[in-house]
Design a protein that fits this description.
TPR repeat; Ankyrin_rpt-contain_sf; mainly alpha; repeat
Amino acid sequence: MDVILPLKMVQKLEKEMSALKEEGNKAYKEQNYKKALESYTHALDLLLNNFQDFSKEAAILYSNRSMVYSGQNKNELALADAVDSVRICPSWNKGHWRRGQVLRSMGQHREAYSAFLEGFHKSEDISQDVKCNFLTEAAISFSNISEEVLMQRCYKGFEGVPIEFWSTVLGNLSKKGEWIAIRYLVLGMTDTDIGVARYANSIEVDFSKLFPFLYKEKPSAYTHMWLTDLVAILLHNGNTLLNFKEDDKDTPVHTAVKFSLLTGSTKILDDMPNVGGMNMIDKHGDSPFHVITKRRPTSDVKSMMRVAGVLIQKGFSLDILDRDRMLAVQYINPTGQFKQLYEMLIKVTKPPPMNFPGFPSAKFSVYPTENVGIQQLKEQGNKEFQNENWQRAAEFYTLAIDVGLRMRKGGHELAVLYSNRANCNLKLGLNTQALDDAVESVSH
């Protein structure tokens, strides 16, 4: 027979229980787990000994205490409380959440997947974002299941999820760098499958965590293949071409170049629009070609040449100077392992016009590299000057100045080079350029 307590006593007990819960919350935030544990346990005892129909309040306290046990690395006790929370009130979302988190921390990924999926279906009075969080964690747990047969069986649990949830879930997973989980949702379990999120809008996908995944995992050729297919689908489904960036300093084309170099596939770059000679630079001041020759995310010459070929075909310019006043081709040693790439790029590279400070109008026949010193270039310029080859001499002095600036040289050495080039410009009748060089010489 249930005992019916007087109203005043009920109100007093409720107030005391609420105070204990708040006390426990405060102690938990301060990482005073012992105090938090005492407060939640006292509140639970008070509740269970005096009330019969306060199931949600009890479920809240159990899930809170489970959180404290996790903070103390007492996973078995944390799991027991999380299970009790779900048993007492199946609609309480944090009970499911705690159960999933504890199971994952114990390495029980299949059980964690089931807990999160159950939370998605059974939790009540929660926002769509919270429901998406359950699906996100379910997908992460799923991707960590080690047995393929078990994965095939569990995958069916995703099939009843309405497609409108997957857009946010894909976004959540991308921000966490969970590209393997995204792969299963979009591409399915086998090469012939269609994933549950294959046609979901991918506008929320964040590509900034894609490259850390590539750098960290050092994927196989097979991973490169499915990752390329995955990115192509995501870009197509969400019209997210403008979002295809590693960071805010990138353009989509620079990112596509980097991705193509790392994966060995130009599929994403092939899908970029032709630009008709557009001088595209990123916020580093680099052209797409500088990504290949200067940043070099790969040293695979064949891959570099493939990517460069696509850029040339699409009309991207090789004639762009970076902030160090260097053309992309100038970062390549013409006699080293990149000789073929150098020969490919030099054929379509035009030098800057004469009115650009520091560069002559003639085609460069030598490009400064780490193996070409300032003194060597200056001596060659002096030789050409003595032979009255003024334009040729100016070219060598320009290259020597460029190497000096890149190596942060200064003082007398640069002053002499600017003075020598000024003399060349006077001989060529380029008085304005000669005056500019004379001013530069004095400033050094």
